[in-house]
Each structure stands twice: as C-alpha cells, then as structure tokens.
Sequence to fold (366 residues):
Amino acid sequence: MTEKDFVPSAYHNLKEEGVVGFKSPSNIALVKYWGKKENQIPANPSISFTLDACATKTILTYSKLEKRATDFSFDLIFEGKPKPSFTPKITTFFSRIVTYVPFLLDYHFVIETSNSFPHSSGIASSASGMSALALCLMEIEKELNPEMSDTQFIQKASFLSRLGSGSACRSIQGDIVQWGNHTDTDRSSDLYGIKYPYEVHKLFRNYHDTILLVDKGEKQVSSTVGHDLMHDHPFARQRFAQAHENLTKLKSVFKEGDLKEFIKIVESEALTLHAMMMTSHPYFILMKPNTLEIINKIWAFRERSGTHVCFTLDAGANVHVLYPENEKEEVYQFIKNELVVYCQNQQYICDRIGFGAKRINVGLDN
Ligand code: DP6
Fold:
C-alpha cells in the first residue's frame, strides 16, 4: 500500500446531512514511537496495548454547504462547551487528510467530543481523540462508498488517525497493535497500525494498566517538540535500532508468555524514552520525584512478592502500572496501600487491555 491507495475515486450523490459517532480508546506503548519523519512517518516501529476505559466519544454532525468551500467549516464542542483552543489542531488535521477525504470541503461539521478520563489528568487525549474523529469521517466515507470492506475501513481509519497524531493509528483495533515497518513483522507498515499478527499467550489476556496520576499539569514538552528533538540526537541511530530489536524479541515473549523478559523490554523502553529526553538539546526531565518513588516501590514489591508487576511511562510523570489478570488482587492491594499516596489528590485510573473503537448508535446511545 502507498499513500495514493487511500485517495478515493470521485464521489457521486453526496448526502445532504447526517450524524455519525464513535468511541475510541487510548493506548499505551510498550515499544515507544519517539521520533518521526515528514508526513507523520515514524522513525521506528512501535507496539501498544489498546486500552479500554480511557476513551474519547465523538459525535459528528454534517450538513452540505451550498457550494464546495476553500476553507474547512466546523464547530467544536468539547464536553458540552465550545473549545476554540482546539481549532488549530483540527484545522491542521483536516489539511493533512483532505486529499484522502475530499468531502471535508463539502460540509459544515459540528464535532461534539468528550473524554472518559478526567480533564487535565495529564493523560494525552490525542490518540483517542484523533482516532475517534478519523473513524467518524470514515463512517461518512462508507455512506458514500458502501462497497468498502471492513479491512479497508479499518486500515484507512488508522491511516487518517496517524495523520492526526502518530500514536492514534494504534487505537482503532485491539488488543495489541503494531505500527511501523519492521522486517520481522509481516504486513507491517509505516502508514497504519495492524493488529499484532502472531500468537499471544493467554497470560497477556486481560492485562491490567492502572494509571497513577502523579502530575496532572500541562505537558512540559509537547510531543511535536519531543519528536523533533530526535532529529539531531546523538543517540538516535542506536535508539531506533533498539526499537527494532525489542519488537523482534517481543515475538517470542508474547508467544511463550515470558513475563520476565516482557518486564525487561517494557521498563527499558520507558526509561530509554526518558533518557532520550534527558540527553537531547534542549534537555528535559519529565519524571517527578514521585515517579521515581513509585518505580522504586514497584521494584521492591516485585522482588519480595514474586509477582510480575511492571511500569511504563509516557512523555510525562504519570506511571502506568502493568500486571497480569491472575495477579490482580495482590497487585491492586499493593497499589492502594503503597502507591496511591504518590498520586496527585490520590487519583488513579483502573484500565486494562481493550478491543478497539466502537460505533456509537447515534439514534439511541447519544
Ligand atoms: C511517548 O502520537 O502524541 O506516547 O505524532 O506528534 O501526535 P504526534 O505524537 P504522539 O507521540 C506519542 C509518543 C509516546 C510514545 C508512544 O505512544 O508510542
């Protein structure tokens, strides 16, 4: 597949108006995407667990303009209120995808969106938000082109999401999604995410992710700035090679259910992401003292309990605590007893591996 394959043939019979909706989850990367080239092409492949509870719901209402416009026409309502600060993001997204969804200039849109996770929790909403919007647009495209197969729908939804936010292309499906060319993964692509195509041991079913909200402030480094810092980064080449190797190693880890090796890869990926930020110019420390307290507590608990709890981090101070279903009681007690004190206002979110985005029945479920 190339970009050109996502350009549709001319539409006939544009509908006058309609309404579509999707709920799309966030995801947590195990091998991290950090660094990108032109047109949202990742510098290295990545893989993530799709989440379940952390999600964005988007309802998109569209009405045909009298005449095809030259600029995008939309209103954005976030959690019931107009949100002008989101306008530039949506405009950039639309301008990146208009070649692939040309009807964008034929309609006025009302985008109503809300997140399941608390506002300003420090949890990035770009993956769930951009994928929910991309899916709504695909639903309109499907109305115009009903012959589209499910595979085409999912692939293009991921392709469009990527152009909104790279990690968003991993939110369409579940439960494990890989994105980016990788020689050891058949059908992998830089253009969209694919459902992980190999055997996964049952230990990874229903995996838990408890997200500890250590710092709910605005991100200190936007992901755009962060990715840019990889351009002249002294360790970039080694880092990108490492991501490829880690993906190859994960293949047998997933197959065998090798949790010890899983932990090594996942924690090393998280710390490498932060090490990249600490060693770029300018440099940043995105962890907070409580992030480190939590990491040390997790290591001590793992040692004494023999459980397989581990952590990963995004580009911020919050900690994702990962653990298998069969250890959930013991680990959850530990989280409550020992880790929650390090969270801002004791806040945390219990999430788990999920199965991807779902259509919202706009007639009833809205
Ligand atoms: C640290 O997907 O937010 O979460 O493509 O610029 O929107 P843009 O970046 P974004 O980067 C996410 C980076 C990460 C790691 C990951 O999810 O793989």
Q: What stands out?
A: The chain has a mean pLDDT of 95. The pocket of DP6 is lined by residues 29, 32-34, 40, 46, 124, 126, 165-167, 223-224, 227, 273, 314-315 (CB under 6 Å). The two ends are 36 Å apart (CA to CA). The longest helix spans residues 236-256.
